[in-house]
Write a structure and sequence with these properties.
Layout: H1 5-32, H2 44-47, H3 49-71, H4 76-107, H5 116-140, H6 146-183, H7 192-216
């Protein structure tokens, strides 16, 4: 039930960075971008849901789900259940976040799926869903044999880290793409909003880095 000192320290740093990233993305989209809305005459408010939901879901909740096994000193069955629920929550928020982008584009007569960010985004959420379904069937219900779980775990863990790392890359491209569009308008390249977006991206990447550090602090020895 115990957790290593290194994992405990790195996970605490990750939790702190998650809070900072959440605050920054909310300040950006509420203070600078005007707020959040599912229905609005100002269609940009619909789009604002996308970075907020993707960060909270796929990045933060997804990252916390990955760290569960190393950051919570509780019994393994409880860790497994929390891990499963967190990942499912991340997928649901991710799907809603992606849908918000399609909704914004469709209501604003903007083409869909035209950028590398959008292509990678669909790829990430698809790989994420495949990973969750596989994990649910093999490790939770109906559950594979002990031998199957033992053979699957060495693949399940690095695959999950790969998908999470790909999500971080996709998020970084998203920050860059949005900021580039804004700077083509009335946002200064050296203004407060530009600095805030860049800083949010850096904090997001640092959070992901400490999630991965926490994950590799020790071995997953059983399934």
């Amino acid at each position: 039930m115990g957790i290593g000192v290194k994992a405990a320290i790195s996970s605490c740093i990750a939790h702190l960075l998650a809070v900072v990233a959440l605050i920054l993305v909310l300040v950006w989209n509420i203070r600078f971008r005007g707020g959040l809305a599912w229905e609005s005459h100002d269609k940009s408010l619909i789009f604002n849901l996308h970075p907020v939901l993707m960060l909270i879901g796929v990045i933060i909740i997804g990252g916390e789900a990955i760290m569960i096994y190393k950051s919570l000193p509780i019994k393994k069955p409880h860790k497994k259940l929390i891990h499963l629920i967190f990942h499912l929550s991340a997928i649901i928020l991710g799907v809603i976040g992606i849908y918000a982008t399609f909704k914004y584009h469709n209501e604003s007569s903007i083409p869909n799926m035209y950028s590398l960010h959008s292509w990678l985004g669909i790829g990430v959420i698809s790989l994420y869903a495949i990973q969750w379904i596989f994990g649910f069937l093999v490790f939770f219900f109906p559950g594979g044999s002990k031998g199957m779980r033992s053979k699957s775990l060495p693949w399940h863990v690095p695959y999950g880290i790969f998908v999470f790392a790909l999500a971080l890359v996709t998020a970084s491209l998203g920050y860059l793409e949005k900021l580039t569009f804004l700077q083509m308008g009335d946002v200064s390249r050296f203004g407060s909003e530009a600095k805030l977006v860049n800083f949010t991206a850096i904090v997001t990447l640092l959070f992901g880095t400490f999630v991965i550090i926490t994950t590799v602090c020790g071995d997953y020895t059983s399934a």
